[in-house]
Structure formats: C-alpha cells, structure tokens
C-alpha cells in the first residue's frame, strides 16, 4: 500500500482499545491519527488518561503519549480526520448501536469489537478465514443507511473463536449438535488480576449474556446471504456454559460434537491440518501462517503456553477422542484479546481494505 489509511480508535482507553493501539503502532497499512473515548477523558493526553490503568505488558508506545483524546461523541469532527475507525467503546448496546451508525452515516466505515450490531441482518460478523464472503452484504447495508462508503462490520464474540474455527473445518461431515463449555480469562471482562481480586482461588460460573452470544453468533457466521441479508444457519444446535476462571489471557473450550456423517479421528485431524483460508486472507499482514494447530501432547493446549501461538492469531486444539454421548470431544484455545478482540478486528479491517470496501477518503 503506497499511502497508509488514517485510522481512529473509538474507546481507546479501555483494555481492547489499548490492544488496538499496540497492534497498530507500526502497522504497514494503517496510521492511527485519532484516539477517542468518553467525555471524561476528552482533552487529556493519552498518557494522562491511561497512566494508572495501562493494562498491556508492553509499555505505552511513545507515538500515542502526547496525543489528545477526543470526545467520541464528536462524530463529525473525528470523521473529518480519518478514513475509518475501530470501535471498542464501552456503552450500553442501544447507545453503541446508534453511535456506530452515526459514524457510518458520516461516510466512515466502522470495524467494531462491540456486540451491539452483531444481530443486525445486514451487518457482517467476520472471521475472515471462514466467512469473508459475508462482506458482500455491505452493499445492502449501505442502501439501508443511505451511504456511499460508510458501513459497519463487526467481529464475533471472543469465546466462540476457540471452537467455531475447528468445527468450521469439519462442516462437510454435517455437525448436528455442539456442547461447548468455555473457561474464560479475566481480560475478557477488561480486567487484570489487580482489578479482579474475587477471581483468585475461585471460578465464577456466570458471565452475563455470554451463553446467548456463544450459542447464536456461530449460526450467523455459518449463515447464507439472501436478498441483502445474512440468514442464520439452522444447524448445528449449540448449547454452552461459560465460566470465568483465574487466567489472565486465553479462552479454553471443552467441546463435544455429534455429526450426521461421523468422520474418523484421522479425517478430523486431516481436515484441521489441511484447512486453508482464501488466498486474499492468507496474505494479509495480521493473518496467521497456520490458522489451526493440533497438539498431540495430552496436556495441551494450555493458555500460558499456547495463547500466543501465531502472535495470538492462531487457534490450537488438543485431546481429540471419541465420546460416549457425542461422537467426539476436544479442547480448543484462542487468545481472547488478540484473535478474539483487537487482533480479529485488525485482520477484518485488512481484509475489507484488500477487498476494496475500505478506501481512502
């Protein structure tokens, strides 16, 4: 790319916003020129706003320290300075949906980490390796919004990344039922151990709204485009339980699957080994060289050892074996703030740029 696109991060002070900032510090295609957050942070430098709550292991990049935070509600002013925005702002769903639509209507594409627009039928929920073709629905969304270049695209819930990609590679065997129990890191709630003392020596068996998202969003990802809408798949039937565990980063899923056409274990491993994303996706700057990786060791994958596989953008699996109730069971792992949040958003933006949906103004 000859000239970098100008980017804004909406919700730059939160954990996912900080992760976006780190990932984009030296990005070959994108240049962050606007950091925005709520009104209470507006007018502060980024360093002032996050100095007591910087949550990344890497130090605050010098590039952002003296950048003055804008009020995310100043949509027209922000849109005049950027080609598109990443949105990770923490508002209630109704306000988030309206804010993202306002940016889109100001002819500024929005790549969102939020759940507010995931259920909208003409908003693509992207895992580029799996359903990049869903971006075609953007044309219908633009007609609804009355825009020429503005639109909203979102990445899915962080917890489903640990089991949807491995099962996606097995769709030809027609999975009919999935049970997934997810054991989710505290960074999924935007917290560190210091901010979440109640998790120490503990497991919390409830994460608000998580099970509904985990059961429904995969069906949209596996859905079909019809008449300017994404029609959710009917099968497989998915049931989940989601627990918060004392792990900083990395969501694990214990997955049980039943198939219409039961494959052999060797066929499953072959499907995982041979899975390839579309060529356009494979060549993106943030794309993992190996999307799916199976560990033969019985005690893998582990969050501490394996969450950073492929810079946190790969999915790892292990312990595949036949089950007495379902056909097979296995363990999946994904990095929830990289593949599951900011990294997935950056990869989606790269795809939307390469495919021509995001351009310079």
UniProtKB/TrEMBL annotation:
Keyword Oxidoreductase: yes
GO molecular function: aspartate-semialdehyde dehydrogenase activity; NAD binding; NADP binding; protein dimerization activity
Signal peptide (from-to): none
Xref: Gene3D superfamilies: Dihydrodipicolinate Reductase, domain 2, NAD(P)-binding Rossmann-like Domain
Biological-process GO terms, alphabetical: methionine biosynthetic process; threonine biosynthetic process
Residue positions of the active site: 158 (acyl-thioester intermediate), 251 (proton acceptor)
Alphabetical UniProt keywords: NADP, Oxidoreductase
Domain Semialdehyde dehydrogenase NAD-binding: start-end pairs: 6-138
Enzyme Commission designation: 1.2.1.11
InterPro entries documented for this protein: ASADH-related (IPR051823), Asp_semi-ald_DH_pep-lack (IPR005676), NAD(P)-bd_dom_sf (IPR036291), Semialdehyde_DH_NAD-bd (IPR000534), Semialdhyde_DH_dimer_dom (IPR012280)
Family: Belongs to the aspartate-semialdehyde dehydrogenase family.
Name used for this protein in its record: Aspartate-semialdehyde dehydrogenase
Species per Swiss-Prot/TrEMBL record: Inconstantimicrobium porci
């Amino acid at each position: 790319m000859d000239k970098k696109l100008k980017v804004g991060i909406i919700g730059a002070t939160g954990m996912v916003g900080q992760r976006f900032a780190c990932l984009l510090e030296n990005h070959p295609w994108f240049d962050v020129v606007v950091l925005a957050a709520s009104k209470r942070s507006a007018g502060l430098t980024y360093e002032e706003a996050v100095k007591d709550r910087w949550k990344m292991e890497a130090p605050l990049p010098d590039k952002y320290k003296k950048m003055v935070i804008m009020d995310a509600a100043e949509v027209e002013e922000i849109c005049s300075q950027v080609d598109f925005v990443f949105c990770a702002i923490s508002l209630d769903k109704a306000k988030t949906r309206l804010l993202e639509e306002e940016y889109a209507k100001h002819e500024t594409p929005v790549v969102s980490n939020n759940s507010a627009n995931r259920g909208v039928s003409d908003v693509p929920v992207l895992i580029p390796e799996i359903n990049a073709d869903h971006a075609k629905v953007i044309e219908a969304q633009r007609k609804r919004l009355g825009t020429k270049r503005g639109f909203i695209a979102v990445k899915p819930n962080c917890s489903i990344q640990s089991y949807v990609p491995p099962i996606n590679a097995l769709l030809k065997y027609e999975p009919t039922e999935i049970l997934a129990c997810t054991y989710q890191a505290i960074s999924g709630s935007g917290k560190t151990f210091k901010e979440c003392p109640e998790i120490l020596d503990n497991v919390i068996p409830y994460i608000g709204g998580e099970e509904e998202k985990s059961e429904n969003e995969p069906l949209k990802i596996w859905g079909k485009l019809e008449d300017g809408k994404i029609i959710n798949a009917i099968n497989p039937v998915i049931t989940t339980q989601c627990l918060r565990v004392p792990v900083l980063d990395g969501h694990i899923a214990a997955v049980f699957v039943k198939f219409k056409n039961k494959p052999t274990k060797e066929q499953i491993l072959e499907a995982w080994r041979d899975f390839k994303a579309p060529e356009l996706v494979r060549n993106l700057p943030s794309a993992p060289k190996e999307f799916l990786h199976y560990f033969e060791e019985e005690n893998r994958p582990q969050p501490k050892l394996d969450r950073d596989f492929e810079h946190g953008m790969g999915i790892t699996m292990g312990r595949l074996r036949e089950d007495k109730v379902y056909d097979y069971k296995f363990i999946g792992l994904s990095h929830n703030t990289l593949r599951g949040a900011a990294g997935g958003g950056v990869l989606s933006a790269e795809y939307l740029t390469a495919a021509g949906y995001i351009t310079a103004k």
